[in-house]
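Input sequence (415 aa), recorded before submission:
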Amino acid sequence: MVRILLILLIVPFVSFGQANRMGGFGYRSTTGYYRSITIDHTKVPSNQDSVTIVWRSPVGTVNTVGTAVTLASGDNFPTWMTDSIMINGVVYKVSSITTGTALVLTASAGTQTGVAYNGTPYLRHQDYGGKVKDADGDDIIVATDNAGSSLCKWNVETYTATTGVTVLHILFPTISSSVDDVRYLRYGGTQTTFQGGSTGAAYVSTAKMVQHFNQPKTAAGQTITDATSNALNLTTQGSSWGAGQTAAGVIGDATSCIKANGNYLSFTQQTLSGDFTLAAWIKISVQNQNSVWFGRNDFEDDFNWYAGYGRYYDGGADIFASSTQTPTATWEYFVITRSGTSIVLYENATSHATATSSFSIVMDQLAKQRNYATSEDIVYDEFQYYSTSRTNDWATTMYNNQNSPQTFYSVGAQN
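Predicted structure, token format:
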């Protein structure tokens, strides 16, 4: 059976902690605290058995006047964020949520404009006022029962002790389209038995590469680590890699490849001759063929945006091309699947192109274009490559969750 992957994500405002802790990490414990995570089955069009779900805290910026808080940017306030909120590094109790863009505190936050907020301050380390005991967040566990006796498998992408910012990738056997699925997040328990795991334990065997792009980029030749056990890592190419290449993503951090620096990302060549799935969040800057998702070194075959229409070009003709132009400066979710000889291109969970072809797609670089030069400025988040074909409902579930995570699930009160 192919399995399901749930991502628990809290986007960091403070870059502090650890990243890419592979396997199911945490200490088994029946003490401490727990909260339920309930997936809204109406957001899942059909039963899924291999999908990446994002659980992340609501984050953004707010304005405050006394006890009144209004959203300035970022995530709307979900109805379940009813106990506490961190505003500009200070934790306040929530009295009520008026709308998705307004809430009321129990105490005044003064007058502040455009300051950061996040909705999960309880996951801070205890030295910073939170409930987590381990400095690396290893007492944060995920289980199928609220006692924490039946653990899930998960990866830790990021844990930030000062804010409670955490990113977990959690493996699920199934997710139902008719009944809400529930898992439990436990934290702050007594550290008894360490629950380690091997690299890529949270990913099914058909996942050949998963890139979260959460690592800082500092120089050419740097390795960006694959989150699966296949070690299909990316290598930074070009010059002037630095803080400007780590951008805000849809889920967490993203990677920005800048044309003026000659930035692109290389990896061991992959030949996609049978069934496959490629998925990524992408933001293009220019609607032309010099904007490139992936390509092949020194060959003209690549995926680019000719006149704004996404297409796969084999050096002589289009294998498939989108029927709709892709907007610039906007995150768009792209999925390409092939089953047998049937190829489908999805953008934001909508089919934009179909084709019949057994053509082998060869790729070994991101952001490198067909004319052997680097792409126009382009930003990537959550690139995934599978050796199996995924369905339209898989693409829809992924998009529904990642595009609007706070309506995809609810989080229970602390117990």
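Checked by second reader. Residues 1-19 have pLDDT under 50 and may be disordered.
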